[in-house]
Every structure is written in structure tokens, then in C-alpha cells.
From TrEMBL:
InterPro entries in the cross-refs: GTP_cyclohydro_II, RibA, RibA-like_sf
Species whose genome carries this gene: Streptomyces caelestis
PANTHER family for this protein: 3,4-DIHYDROXY-2-BUTANONE 4-PHOSPHATE SYNTHASE (PTHR21327:SF18), GTP CYCLOHYDROLASE II-RELATED (PTHR21327)
Record's GO cellular component terms: cytosol
Record field: catalytic activity: GTP + 4 H2O = 2,5-diamino-6-hydroxy-4-(5-phosphoribosylamino)-pyrimidine + formate + 2 phosphate + 3 H(+)
Domain GTP cyclohydrolase II as annotated: residue spans: 17-173
Name of this protein: GTP cyclohydrolase II
Keyword field contains Cell wall biogenesis/degradation: no
EC number: 3.5.4.25
Requisite cofactors: Zn(2+)
Membrane-spanning residues: none
Pathway assigned to this chain's UniProt record: Cofactor biosynthesis; riboflavin biosynthesis; 5-amino-6-(D-ribitylamino)uracil from GTP: step 1/4
Length: 207
């Protein structure tokens, strides 16, 4: 097991009503002492005290999450997670890992390359960055600060599961997200499927 993340603690809990979670009351939680010193955010929707809660680790995608860009599946995945969490409660970790960790401007540079028929992972390498620079040490530290060491994780990304387990979080179930396939994001999703994401890329498999 990797060295446990340094101890983080809750800084503030802020009540908020979330329209994107069907108007449910939620709590936004900030932290002290996260390993990478980014302003990651937890969004907690009330869950039963004895439950092993549903958790989604969502990596920031300003273009998809905020602007609704059709180039990727991030916006629909965020909506899907918030809807599921509104149903049964749980926690969304909104991780400031824009562009799989390379940042917004670099991601947009890779979009220029992708428009010349280079896939998303190769495009990262061409600009001198890793294919996926994310790690989940802060996510594990946030979960611990929230008192969560047993979770059910909503993801198609085996690396999230492996890293969290390595960091001492008991991932007791892995629940796939829907496949939000469109003509515009098909190449992006194919590249994800080729690099280990569990995605059944049949149009309309699940929306
Ligand atoms: N570098 C780069 N990052 C991208 C691109 N499209 C989306 N992203 C980023 O990818 C991250 C989301 O990762 P995904 O690979 O879509 O999904 P995941 O988080 O690995 O897996 P799931 O849990 O199954 O959703 C976000 O940080 C997005 O900003 C792209 O073309 N290039
Ligand atoms: Zn995206």
C-alpha cells in the first residue's frame, strides 16, 4: 500500500440547494491540508448513516461541465452523477484536475492537435505532457476527512479504483456510468475505451 495521504481536515461546510441535483439540499465541503494544495471540493448529499455511500470522483472539465461542450462526455457524466446522488445520497468530489491534470490551456492546445486527427492521449504526449497526470491522493484524503473509508464508486476508470484501494479506501462496489455517445464525442470515447476505460461503445447502450 502507498503511504497514506497526510491528514486533511474539513475547513467549512456550506449548505446549498442544487438545481442540478433535482433541487435537493446538499453541503459543499472545503478542506485544510490536502496533499496537492488544490481547491478541491466535496459535495455531500444526505445518505443513510449506516450506508456504504455512493461516491463519484469527477475531474474538472470547464468546457464540458460549465459550457456544455460536446467534444467529451464530462457534462452528461456530471449530470448523471448528481441525479444518482440526489436519488440515494452520497458524495461528489469535484477534483481540480482539468485536462486529466495538464490544465485548461494545455487541453485546448491538444484540441487543436485532435482536429488534425490525433487522438486525445497522443496529443498530450506531443505537447510534452503525460497521457493522464491525475493522482487520487487528495481524493483519498478528502474521503478520510469526511469519515469515509468504505465506498461504492461510480466510474468506468479502473485506475481510479486501483489508486483509491492502494491509498487504503475500501471500494466495495464499482458502478459503471452511462455511455454518453454522440457523433461528436465518438473519437474521444473510443480513445478512452482503448486505454482501459470499461465502455460499451454501442450507440444508445445507455444514455
Ligand atoms: N488532456 C485532455 N483532457 C481531456 C480531454 N477531454 C476531456 N479531458 C479531461 O478528462 C477528464 C475526465 O476524464 P475522462 O477520461 O473523461 O473520464 P475519467 O474521469 O477518467 O473516468 P470516469 O470516472 O469513467 O468518467 C477531465 O479532467 C477533462 O477535462 C482531452 O481531449 N484532452
Ligand atoms: Zn470533458
Amino acid at each position: 500500500m502507498t503511504a497514506l495521504p497526510q491528514t486533511a481536515s474539513v475547513r467549512a461546510r456550506v449548505p446549498v440547494t442544487l438545481h442540478r441535483a433535482t433541487g435537493r439540499p446538499a453541503e459543499l465541503v472545503t478542506f485544510h491540508g490536502l496533499p496537492d494544495a488544490q481547491e478541491h471540493l466535496a459535495c455531500v448529499l444526505p445518505y443513510a448513516p449506516q450506508a456504504v455511500p455512493l461516491v463519484r470522483l469527477h475531474s474538472e472539465c470547464l468546457t464540458g461541465d460549465v459550457l456544455g461542450s460536446a467534444r467529451c462526455d464530462c457534462g452528461p457524466q456530471l449530470d448523471e452523477a448528481l441525479t444518482a446522488l440526489a436519488d440515494e445520497g452520497g458524495v461528489l468530489l469535484y477534483l481540480r484536475q482539468e485536462g486529466r491534470g495538464i490544465g485548461l490551456y494545455n487541453k485546448l492546445d491538444t484540441y487543436v492537435l485532435q482536429d488534425q486527427d490525433i487522438d486525445t492521449f497522443s496529443a498530450n504526449r506531443i505537447i510534452g505532457r503525460g497521457e493522464d497526470e491525475r493522482d487520487y491522493r487528495s481524493a483519498a484524503a478528502m474521503l478520510r476527512a469526511l469519515g469515509l473509508t468504505r465506498i461504492r464508486l461510480l466510474t468506468n476508470n479502473p485506475d481510479k479504483v486501483a489508486q483509491l484501494r492502494d491509498l487504503g479506501i475500501r471500494v466495495e462496489a464499482v458502478l459503471p456510468t452511462g455511455v454518453h455517445l454522440t457523433d461528436e464525442n465518438a473519437r474521444y470515447l473510443s480513445a478512452k475505451a482503448r486505454t482501459g476505460h470499461t465502455l460499451a461503445l454501442l450507440k444508445g447502450a445507455s444514455a
